[in-house]
Design goal:
Elements lengths: L2 H14 L18 H6 L6 H14 L20 E4 L5 E6 L5 E8 L13 H9 L8 H10 L3 E6 L4 E8 L3 H13 L8 H16 L2 H14 L11 H6 L2 H11 L5 E7 L3 H12 L21 E5 L5 E10 L7 H13 L4 H9 L7 E7 L2 E11 L3 H17 L4 H18 L3 H14 L4 H4 L1 H6 L3 H11 L6 E6 L1 H14 L5
Parallel strand pairs: 2-6, 7-11
Antiparallel strand pairs: 1-2, 3-5, 3-6, 4-5, 8-10, 8-11, 9-10
Length: 503
Protein backbone atom coordinates (compact mmCIF):
# COMPACT_ATOMS: atom_id res chain seq x y z
CA UNK A 1 0.00 0.00 0.00
CA UNK A 2 1.21 3.49 -0.79
CA UNK A 3 3.13 4.96 2.18
CA UNK A 4 1.31 8.26 1.90
CA UNK A 5 -2.10 6.58 2.03
CA UNK A 6 -1.02 4.49 5.02
CA UNK A 7 0.09 7.65 6.81
CA UNK A 8 -3.17 9.44 6.10
CA UNK A 9 -5.18 6.38 7.17
CA UNK A 10 -3.26 6.08 10.42
CA UNK A 11 -3.79 9.75 11.22
CA UNK A 12 -7.48 9.55 10.44
CA UNK A 13 -7.96 6.41 12.55
CA UNK A 14 -6.09 8.04 15.41
CA UNK A 15 -8.44 11.00 15.21
CA UNK A 16 -11.45 8.66 15.15
CA UNK A 17 -10.20 6.80 18.21
CA UNK A 18 -9.97 10.04 20.19
CA UNK A 19 -13.44 11.65 20.04
CA UNK A 20 -12.62 13.77 23.07
CA UNK A 21 -9.94 15.62 21.17
CA UNK A 22 -12.43 18.36 20.27
CA UNK A 23 -14.49 18.21 23.54
CA UNK A 24 -13.97 18.91 27.22
CA UNK A 25 -11.96 16.12 28.84
CA UNK A 26 -14.16 13.77 30.90
CA UNK A 27 -13.15 12.61 34.38
CA UNK A 28 -11.16 9.41 34.41
CA UNK A 29 -13.07 6.28 35.41
CA UNK A 30 -11.95 2.79 36.21
CA UNK A 31 -13.57 0.27 33.87
CA UNK A 32 -13.12 -3.42 33.26
CA UNK A 33 -13.48 -4.67 29.71
CA UNK A 34 -14.07 -8.33 28.94
CA UNK A 35 -12.71 -10.17 25.93
CA UNK A 36 -16.24 -10.66 24.66
CA UNK A 37 -16.91 -6.95 24.80
CA UNK A 38 -13.70 -6.27 22.94
CA UNK A 39 -14.46 -8.84 20.28
CA UNK A 40 -18.02 -7.69 19.62
CA UNK A 41 -17.51 -3.94 19.90
CA UNK A 42 -18.15 -2.40 16.46
CA UNK A 43 -15.47 -0.17 14.85
CA UNK A 44 -16.89 3.26 14.14
CA UNK A 45 -14.93 5.51 11.77
CA UNK A 46 -15.20 9.26 11.54
CA UNK A 47 -16.13 10.73 8.18
CA UNK A 48 -12.46 11.58 7.49
CA UNK A 49 -11.35 8.07 8.42
CA UNK A 50 -13.93 6.54 6.12
CA UNK A 51 -12.58 8.58 3.22
CA UNK A 52 -9.04 7.50 4.05
CA UNK A 53 -10.11 3.83 4.10
CA UNK A 54 -11.80 4.24 0.74
CA UNK A 55 -8.69 5.90 -0.68
CA UNK A 56 -6.51 3.09 0.63
CA UNK A 57 -8.70 0.49 -1.02
CA UNK A 58 -8.69 2.40 -4.29
CA UNK A 59 -4.89 2.59 -4.27
CA UNK A 60 -4.71 -1.18 -3.96
CA UNK A 61 -6.40 -1.55 -7.32
CA UNK A 62 -3.89 -2.00 -10.11
CA UNK A 63 -3.05 1.36 -11.68
CA UNK A 64 -3.84 1.86 -15.31
CA UNK A 65 -0.97 2.26 -17.73
CA UNK A 66 -0.28 5.88 -18.69
CA UNK A 67 -1.48 6.97 -22.13
CA UNK A 68 0.90 6.41 -25.01
CA UNK A 69 3.12 9.33 -25.90
CA UNK A 70 2.61 11.30 -29.07
CA UNK A 71 4.47 10.70 -32.28
CA UNK A 72 7.97 12.24 -32.29
CA UNK A 73 8.19 15.35 -34.43
CA UNK A 74 11.21 16.85 -36.12
CA UNK A 75 12.44 20.23 -35.01
CA UNK A 76 11.13 22.96 -37.31
CA UNK A 77 13.79 25.61 -37.75
CA UNK A 78 12.04 29.00 -37.75
CA UNK A 79 12.24 31.05 -40.92
CA UNK A 80 15.46 33.01 -40.85
CA UNK A 81 17.24 35.70 -42.80
CA UNK A 82 20.89 35.11 -43.69
CA UNK A 83 23.12 37.75 -45.22
CA UNK A 84 26.85 38.33 -45.75
CA UNK A 85 28.62 41.66 -45.77
CA UNK A 86 31.23 42.60 -48.36
CA UNK A 87 34.04 42.01 -45.82
CA UNK A 88 32.92 38.40 -45.27
CA UNK A 89 31.00 38.75 -41.99
CA UNK A 90 27.92 36.53 -41.86
CA UNK A 91 24.68 37.29 -40.02
CA UNK A 92 21.66 35.08 -39.25
CA UNK A 93 18.43 36.62 -37.94
CA UNK A 94 15.70 34.32 -36.58
CA UNK A 95 12.33 35.81 -35.55
CA UNK A 96 11.12 33.58 -32.70
CA UNK A 97 8.59 33.51 -29.87
CA UNK A 98 6.24 36.10 -28.39
CA UNK A 99 8.29 37.45 -25.48
CA UNK A 100 9.50 41.00 -26.32
CA UNK A 101 13.17 40.15 -25.90
CA UNK A 102 16.02 39.33 -28.24
CA UNK A 103 19.18 37.28 -27.79
CA UNK A 104 22.32 38.07 -29.78
CA UNK A 105 25.65 36.38 -30.17
CA UNK A 106 28.87 37.32 -31.93
CA UNK A 107 31.06 34.28 -32.58
CA UNK A 108 34.65 34.84 -33.68
CA UNK A 109 36.54 31.75 -34.77
CA UNK A 110 39.52 32.53 -32.56
CA UNK A 111 40.35 30.53 -29.45
CA UNK A 112 43.06 28.65 -27.61
CA UNK A 113 43.64 26.50 -30.69
CA UNK A 114 45.11 29.56 -32.41
CA UNK A 115 47.71 30.23 -29.73
CA UNK A 116 51.37 29.55 -30.42
CA UNK A 117 53.61 27.64 -27.98
CA UNK A 118 54.72 30.91 -26.38
CA UNK A 119 51.20 32.35 -26.33
CA UNK A 120 49.42 29.93 -24.01
CA UNK A 121 46.35 31.68 -22.50
CA UNK A 122 46.76 34.83 -24.59
CA UNK A 123 43.25 34.30 -26.03
CA UNK A 124 41.86 34.15 -22.49
CA UNK A 125 43.66 37.32 -21.41
CA UNK A 126 42.45 39.04 -24.57
CA UNK A 127 38.89 38.04 -23.75
CA UNK A 128 39.17 39.50 -20.26
CA UNK A 129 40.61 42.77 -21.57
CA UNK A 130 37.81 43.09 -24.13
CA UNK A 131 35.34 43.27 -21.25
CA UNK A 132 37.18 46.26 -19.77
CA UNK A 133 35.66 48.79 -22.12
CA UNK A 134 36.05 50.20 -25.63
CA UNK A 135 37.72 53.26 -27.11
CA UNK A 136 34.61 55.30 -26.21
CA UNK A 137 33.23 53.53 -23.11
CA UNK A 138 34.67 52.33 -19.83
CA UNK A 139 33.64 48.96 -18.44
CA UNK A 140 31.27 50.69 -16.01
CA UNK A 141 29.65 52.76 -18.75
CA UNK A 142 29.28 49.67 -20.92
CA UNK A 143 27.56 47.77 -18.11
CA UNK A 144 25.23 50.70 -17.37
CA UNK A 145 24.15 51.08 -20.99
CA UNK A 146 23.33 47.39 -21.35
CA UNK A 147 21.52 47.34 -18.00
CA UNK A 148 19.29 50.26 -19.07
CA UNK A 149 18.14 48.11 -21.97
CA UNK A 150 16.97 45.42 -19.56
CA UNK A 151 19.84 43.32 -20.81
CA UNK A 152 23.10 41.56 -20.05
CA UNK A 153 26.39 40.97 -21.83
CA UNK A 154 29.08 38.35 -21.31
CA UNK A 155 32.13 37.04 -23.14
CA UNK A 156 33.69 33.57 -23.08
CA UNK A 157 36.79 32.11 -24.70
CA UNK A 158 36.79 28.49 -25.84
CA UNK A 159 39.15 26.17 -27.63
CA UNK A 160 37.86 26.98 -31.12
CA UNK A 161 36.09 30.34 -30.82
CA UNK A 162 35.37 33.39 -28.71
CA UNK A 163 31.71 34.22 -28.14
CA UNK A 164 30.03 37.41 -26.99
CA UNK A 165 26.48 36.84 -25.68
CA UNK A 166 23.89 39.51 -24.99
CA UNK A 167 20.16 39.97 -24.55
CA UNK A 168 17.82 42.91 -24.13
CA UNK A 169 14.26 44.12 -24.60
CA UNK A 170 13.22 43.98 -28.24
CA UNK A 171 13.13 47.75 -28.81
CA UNK A 172 16.85 48.03 -28.03
CA UNK A 173 18.06 45.28 -30.39
CA UNK A 174 19.70 47.60 -32.95
CA UNK A 175 21.48 49.58 -30.22
CA UNK A 176 22.73 46.44 -28.47
CA UNK A 177 23.99 45.02 -31.78
CA UNK A 178 25.97 48.24 -32.29
CA UNK A 179 27.47 48.02 -28.80
CA UNK A 180 28.55 44.42 -29.36
CA UNK A 181 30.30 45.46 -32.58
CA UNK A 182 32.09 48.18 -30.65
CA UNK A 183 33.29 45.72 -27.99
CA UNK A 184 34.79 43.40 -30.61
CA UNK A 185 36.21 45.99 -33.00
CA UNK A 186 37.46 48.70 -30.65
CA UNK A 187 38.69 47.15 -27.39
CA UNK A 188 40.47 49.67 -25.17
CA UNK A 189 43.06 47.20 -23.84
CA UNK A 190 43.67 49.30 -20.69
CA UNK A 191 47.19 48.69 -19.43
CA UNK A 192 46.08 49.68 -15.93
CA UNK A 193 43.94 46.52 -15.67
CA UNK A 194 46.55 44.03 -16.93
CA UNK A 195 48.13 43.16 -13.58
CA UNK A 196 44.75 42.65 -11.89
CA UNK A 197 43.42 40.43 -14.67
CA UNK A 198 46.57 38.29 -14.71
CA UNK A 199 46.39 37.88 -10.92
CA UNK A 200 42.76 36.78 -11.24
CA UNK A 201 43.72 34.25 -13.91
CA UNK A 202 46.45 32.78 -11.73
CA UNK A 203 44.05 32.37 -8.81
CA UNK A 204 41.47 30.71 -11.02
CA UNK A 205 44.03 28.33 -12.49
CA UNK A 206 45.37 27.42 -9.05
CA UNK A 207 41.87 26.52 -7.87
CA UNK A 208 41.17 24.52 -11.03
CA UNK A 209 44.42 22.55 -10.81
CA UNK A 210 43.53 21.46 -7.26
CA UNK A 211 40.37 19.69 -8.45
CA UNK A 212 40.75 15.95 -9.15
CA UNK A 213 38.30 16.19 -12.02
CA UNK A 214 40.42 18.83 -13.71
CA UNK A 215 43.58 16.80 -13.08
CA UNK A 216 42.04 13.71 -14.68
CA UNK A 217 40.67 15.56 -17.70
CA UNK A 218 43.98 17.33 -18.32
CA UNK A 219 45.89 14.06 -18.17
CA UNK A 220 43.37 12.40 -20.51
CA UNK A 221 43.39 15.26 -23.05
CA UNK A 222 47.17 15.31 -23.15
CA UNK A 223 47.28 11.56 -23.75
CA UNK A 224 44.78 11.80 -26.61
CA UNK A 225 45.82 15.04 -28.31
CA UNK A 226 49.50 15.27 -27.43
CA UNK A 227 51.16 18.51 -28.53
CA UNK A 228 48.06 19.85 -30.27
CA UNK A 229 46.49 22.81 -28.41
CA UNK A 230 43.57 20.54 -27.49
CA UNK A 231 46.04 18.56 -25.40
CA UNK A 232 47.49 21.46 -23.45
CA UNK A 233 46.96 21.69 -19.75
CA UNK A 234 46.04 24.81 -17.82
CA UNK A 235 48.51 27.71 -18.10
CA UNK A 236 51.10 27.95 -15.35
CA UNK A 237 51.73 31.07 -13.32
CA UNK A 238 54.96 31.58 -15.23
CA UNK A 239 53.16 31.42 -18.59
CA UNK A 240 50.57 33.95 -17.44
CA UNK A 241 53.21 36.26 -16.01
CA UNK A 242 55.11 36.16 -19.29
CA UNK A 243 52.17 37.52 -21.32
CA UNK A 244 52.46 41.18 -22.28
CA UNK A 245 49.98 43.75 -23.50
CA UNK A 246 51.90 43.90 -26.78
CA UNK A 247 51.39 40.14 -27.23
CA UNK A 248 47.65 40.52 -26.64
CA UNK A 249 47.39 43.34 -29.17
CA UNK A 250 49.46 41.42 -31.73
CA UNK A 251 47.32 38.30 -31.28
CA UNK A 252 44.16 40.35 -31.78
CA UNK A 253 45.51 41.98 -34.93
CA UNK A 254 46.71 38.68 -36.41
CA UNK A 255 43.63 36.57 -35.62
CA UNK A 256 40.51 38.75 -35.51
CA UNK A 257 38.62 39.80 -38.61
CA UNK A 258 35.27 39.82 -40.39
CA UNK A 259 35.87 36.55 -42.25
CA UNK A 260 36.04 34.70 -38.93
CA UNK A 261 33.03 36.47 -37.43
CA UNK A 262 29.34 35.55 -37.37
CA UNK A 263 26.46 37.50 -35.81
CA UNK A 264 23.28 35.75 -34.64
CA UNK A 265 19.97 37.12 -33.37
CA UNK A 266 16.85 35.27 -32.24
CA UNK A 267 13.67 36.51 -30.60
CA UNK A 268 11.34 39.43 -31.26
CA UNK A 269 12.88 42.32 -33.16
CA UNK A 270 12.42 44.77 -36.02
CA UNK A 271 14.24 42.85 -38.76
CA UNK A 272 14.97 45.77 -41.15
CA UNK A 273 16.23 47.96 -38.29
CA UNK A 274 18.44 45.21 -36.88
CA UNK A 275 19.81 44.31 -40.30
CA UNK A 276 20.66 47.97 -40.94
CA UNK A 277 22.36 48.29 -37.53
CA UNK A 278 24.49 45.19 -38.09
CA UNK A 279 25.47 46.33 -41.58
CA UNK A 280 26.43 49.82 -40.42
CA UNK A 281 28.31 48.64 -37.33
CA UNK A 282 30.32 45.88 -38.96
CA UNK A 283 30.98 47.03 -42.54
CA UNK A 284 34.23 48.74 -41.54
CA UNK A 285 35.66 45.67 -39.79
CA UNK A 286 38.78 44.50 -41.69
CA UNK A 287 38.48 41.17 -43.45
CA UNK A 288 41.29 39.65 -41.46
CA UNK A 289 42.45 36.05 -41.98
CA UNK A 290 40.27 33.31 -43.40
CA UNK A 291 38.80 30.80 -40.94
CA UNK A 292 41.34 28.13 -40.04
CA UNK A 293 41.55 25.51 -37.32
CA UNK A 294 44.39 23.03 -37.27
CA UNK A 295 42.77 19.61 -37.33
CA UNK A 296 43.95 17.43 -34.48
CA UNK A 297 45.08 13.85 -34.94
CA UNK A 298 43.95 12.12 -31.75
CA UNK A 299 45.90 9.12 -30.51
CA UNK A 300 44.48 5.74 -29.60
CA UNK A 301 46.88 4.70 -26.87
CA UNK A 302 45.28 2.12 -24.59
CA UNK A 303 47.30 3.43 -21.64
CA UNK A 304 46.54 3.26 -17.93
CA UNK A 305 47.63 6.53 -16.29
CA UNK A 306 47.52 7.42 -12.61
CA UNK A 307 48.04 10.46 -10.43
CA UNK A 308 48.52 10.12 -6.70
CA UNK A 309 46.11 11.90 -4.37
CA UNK A 310 47.12 10.63 -0.92
CA UNK A 311 44.31 9.60 1.44
CA UNK A 312 41.60 10.60 -1.03
CA UNK A 313 38.26 8.96 -0.12
CA UNK A 314 37.35 8.82 -3.80
CA UNK A 315 39.09 8.06 -7.07
CA UNK A 316 38.29 10.14 -10.14
CA UNK A 317 38.11 7.96 -13.24
CA UNK A 318 38.14 9.07 -16.86
CA UNK A 319 37.93 6.28 -19.43
CA UNK A 320 37.73 6.96 -23.16
CA UNK A 321 39.09 7.07 -26.67
CA UNK A 322 38.85 9.05 -29.93
CA UNK A 323 35.58 8.79 -31.87
CA UNK A 324 33.84 10.62 -34.73
CA UNK A 325 32.73 14.27 -34.74
CA UNK A 326 29.32 15.71 -35.76
CA UNK A 327 30.26 15.86 -39.43
CA UNK A 328 30.51 12.04 -39.61
CA UNK A 329 27.50 9.96 -40.78
CA UNK A 330 27.75 7.73 -37.69
CA UNK A 331 27.51 10.59 -35.21
CA UNK A 332 23.76 10.35 -34.55
CA UNK A 333 24.12 6.62 -33.90
CA UNK A 334 26.94 7.47 -31.52
CA UNK A 335 24.64 9.90 -29.72
CA UNK A 336 21.97 7.27 -29.20
CA UNK A 337 24.47 4.58 -28.21
CA UNK A 338 26.16 6.90 -25.73
CA UNK A 339 22.88 7.87 -24.11
CA UNK A 340 21.93 4.22 -23.64
CA UNK A 341 25.35 3.15 -22.40
CA UNK A 342 26.20 5.93 -19.95
CA UNK A 343 24.97 9.32 -21.10
CA UNK A 344 21.57 9.47 -19.40
CA UNK A 345 20.36 8.93 -15.84
CA UNK A 346 18.68 5.66 -16.82
CA UNK A 347 21.73 4.39 -18.75
CA UNK A 348 23.28 0.98 -18.20
CA UNK A 349 26.56 2.07 -16.60
CA UNK A 350 24.70 4.42 -14.26
CA UNK A 351 22.28 1.70 -13.18
CA UNK A 352 25.16 -0.69 -12.62
CA UNK A 353 27.73 1.26 -10.63
CA UNK A 354 25.34 3.76 -9.05
CA UNK A 355 22.01 2.07 -8.45
CA UNK A 356 23.06 -1.59 -8.12
CA UNK A 357 26.58 -1.40 -6.69
CA UNK A 358 26.64 1.99 -5.01
CA UNK A 359 30.22 2.69 -6.07
CA UNK A 360 29.49 6.27 -7.17
CA UNK A 361 26.83 8.94 -7.09
CA UNK A 362 26.82 10.57 -10.52
CA UNK A 363 28.72 8.76 -13.28
CA UNK A 364 28.20 9.91 -16.84
CA UNK A 365 29.51 9.33 -20.33
CA UNK A 366 29.72 12.01 -22.98
CA UNK A 367 30.74 12.82 -26.53
CA UNK A 368 33.24 15.68 -26.41
CA UNK A 369 33.31 17.31 -29.81
CA UNK A 370 36.08 19.42 -31.28
CA UNK A 371 36.54 20.66 -34.81
CA UNK A 372 36.77 17.50 -36.92
CA UNK A 373 37.70 15.48 -33.83
CA UNK A 374 36.04 14.08 -30.75
CA UNK A 375 36.25 11.65 -27.86
CA UNK A 376 33.92 9.39 -25.93
CA UNK A 377 34.54 9.36 -22.19
CA UNK A 378 33.01 7.80 -19.09
CA UNK A 379 33.69 9.84 -15.96
CA UNK A 380 33.00 8.91 -12.35
CA UNK A 381 34.09 9.73 -8.82
CA UNK A 382 34.08 6.32 -7.13
CA UNK A 383 34.78 5.03 -3.64
CA UNK A 384 38.52 4.45 -3.42
CA UNK A 385 38.17 0.83 -2.32
CA UNK A 386 35.97 0.10 -5.37
CA UNK A 387 38.14 1.69 -8.04
CA UNK A 388 39.10 -1.57 -9.70
CA UNK A 389 35.57 -2.95 -9.50
CA UNK A 390 34.17 0.23 -11.04
CA UNK A 391 36.49 -0.09 -14.04
CA UNK A 392 35.56 -3.75 -14.35
CA UNK A 393 31.84 -2.99 -14.41
CA UNK A 394 32.25 -0.17 -16.93
CA UNK A 395 34.05 -2.54 -19.28
CA UNK A 396 31.46 -5.26 -18.63
CA UNK A 397 28.66 -2.94 -19.72
CA UNK A 398 30.54 -1.91 -22.85
CA UNK A 399 31.13 -5.53 -23.82
CA UNK A 400 27.57 -6.54 -23.00
CA UNK A 401 26.25 -3.89 -25.37
CA UNK A 402 28.70 -5.04 -28.03
CA UNK A 403 27.48 -8.63 -27.75
CA UNK A 404 23.75 -8.11 -27.21
CA UNK A 405 21.57 -5.53 -28.90
CA UNK A 406 19.25 -3.64 -26.55
CA UNK A 407 15.56 -4.48 -26.52
CA UNK A 408 13.23 -2.37 -28.62
CA UNK A 409 11.60 -0.98 -25.46
CA UNK A 410 14.92 0.04 -23.89
CA UNK A 411 16.03 1.75 -27.08
CA UNK A 412 12.69 3.50 -27.51
CA UNK A 413 12.98 5.05 -24.07
CA UNK A 414 16.42 6.41 -24.94
CA UNK A 415 15.22 7.72 -28.31
CA UNK A 416 12.31 9.51 -26.64
CA UNK A 417 14.73 11.05 -24.16
CA UNK A 418 17.24 12.17 -26.82
CA UNK A 419 14.58 13.48 -29.19
CA UNK A 420 12.73 15.28 -26.41
CA UNK A 421 15.87 16.89 -25.00
CA UNK A 422 16.89 18.04 -28.46
CA UNK A 423 13.56 19.79 -29.03
CA UNK A 424 13.65 21.31 -25.53
CA UNK A 425 17.14 22.70 -26.09
CA UNK A 426 15.84 24.46 -29.20
CA UNK A 427 12.78 25.97 -27.52
CA UNK A 428 14.48 29.26 -26.57
CA UNK A 429 16.23 31.99 -28.56
CA UNK A 430 19.54 31.12 -26.87
CA UNK A 431 19.11 27.47 -27.84
CA UNK A 432 18.44 28.31 -31.48
CA UNK A 433 21.46 30.60 -31.64
CA UNK A 434 23.65 27.88 -30.14
CA UNK A 435 22.47 25.33 -32.68
CA UNK A 436 23.05 27.66 -35.63
CA UNK A 437 26.54 28.39 -34.35
CA UNK A 438 27.22 24.65 -34.14
CA UNK A 439 26.14 24.25 -37.76
CA UNK A 440 28.48 27.03 -38.86
CA UNK A 441 31.47 25.89 -36.80
CA UNK A 442 31.30 22.29 -38.02
CA UNK A 443 30.10 23.05 -41.55
CA UNK A 444 26.80 21.18 -41.18
CA UNK A 445 23.62 21.63 -43.27
CA UNK A 446 20.31 22.79 -41.79
CA UNK A 447 19.02 19.23 -42.19
CA UNK A 448 21.32 18.24 -39.32
CA UNK A 449 18.81 20.06 -37.12
CA UNK A 450 15.55 19.64 -39.01
CA UNK A 451 15.93 15.87 -39.48
CA UNK A 452 17.66 15.04 -36.21
CA UNK A 453 14.62 13.65 -34.37
CA UNK A 454 13.78 11.47 -37.36
CA UNK A 455 17.37 10.23 -37.56
CA UNK A 456 17.47 9.52 -33.82
CA UNK A 457 14.33 7.40 -34.07
CA UNK A 458 15.63 5.58 -37.15
CA UNK A 459 18.48 3.97 -35.19
CA UNK A 460 17.88 0.23 -34.67
CA UNK A 461 18.93 -1.98 -31.74
CA UNK A 462 21.39 -3.78 -34.01
CA UNK A 463 22.97 -0.48 -35.07
CA UNK A 464 23.46 0.50 -31.42
CA UNK A 465 25.35 -2.72 -30.80
CA UNK A 466 27.34 -2.38 -34.03
CA UNK A 467 28.32 1.20 -33.13
CA UNK A 468 29.57 0.07 -29.72
CA UNK A 469 31.67 -2.65 -31.37
CA UNK A 470 33.05 -0.26 -33.97
CA UNK A 471 33.99 2.67 -31.76
CA UNK A 472 33.90 1.87 -28.02
CA UNK A 473 36.69 -0.69 -27.85
CA UNK A 474 37.91 -1.42 -24.31
CA UNK A 475 41.34 -2.56 -25.46
CA UNK A 476 41.93 0.84 -27.10
CA UNK A 477 40.80 3.02 -24.21
CA UNK A 478 42.98 5.41 -22.29
CA UNK A 479 42.23 5.09 -18.57
CA UNK A 480 43.08 7.85 -16.11
CA UNK A 481 42.73 7.38 -12.35
CA UNK A 482 43.39 10.16 -9.85
CA UNK A 483 43.31 8.74 -6.34
CA UNK A 484 45.16 7.31 -3.36
CA UNK A 485 47.89 5.37 -5.11
CA UNK A 486 48.70 3.00 -2.26
CA UNK A 487 45.08 1.81 -2.21
CA UNK A 488 44.33 2.04 -5.91
CA UNK A 489 47.44 0.53 -7.45
CA UNK A 490 46.86 -3.10 -6.30
CA UNK A 491 43.29 -2.88 -7.62
CA UNK A 492 44.48 -1.63 -11.00
CA UNK A 493 47.01 -4.45 -11.29
CA UNK A 494 44.25 -6.95 -10.59
CA UNK A 495 41.96 -5.23 -13.09
CA UNK A 496 44.61 -5.42 -15.81
CA UNK A 497 45.39 -9.05 -15.06
CA UNK A 498 41.72 -10.00 -15.40
CA UNK A 499 41.20 -8.25 -18.70
CA UNK A 500 40.90 -10.62 -21.64
CA UNK A 501 42.65 -8.16 -23.92
CA UNK A 502 45.69 -6.56 -22.29
CA UNK A 503 45.74 -2.79 -22.07
Amino acid sequence: MNKLVIGLLSAALAGAAAPGAHAQKAPAKTKTTTKAQTATKPVIYSKGAAKAVAAAKASAVAKQAPPAGGQPRDFALPAKEDFTLDNGLRARLVPFGQVPKVSLMVAVQVGNVHEGPNEVAVADLLGKLMQEGTATMTAAQLAQRVARMGGSLSLSVGLDQTTLYASCLSEYAPELATIMADVVQHPAFPASELARLKADMKRQMTLARAQPGTQARMKFSNAIYGDHPYGRGLPTDAQIDALTLEQVQAFYKAQYGAQRTSVYAAGRFDAPALRQAITAAWSGFPQGPAPKIEIAKPLTRGDLLTQDRPNAPQSTIVVGLPVVDPSHPDYIRMRVMNSLLGGSFGSRITRNIREDKGYTYSPYSSLNTRYRAGTWTETADVTTSETGNSLKEIMNEVERLQKEAPSADELKGIQNYEGGMFVLRNSTPDGIIGQLNTLDLHGLPDTYLTEQVKNINAVTPQQVSETARKYIRPEAMTIVVVGDKKVVEPQLKKFQAERKKPL
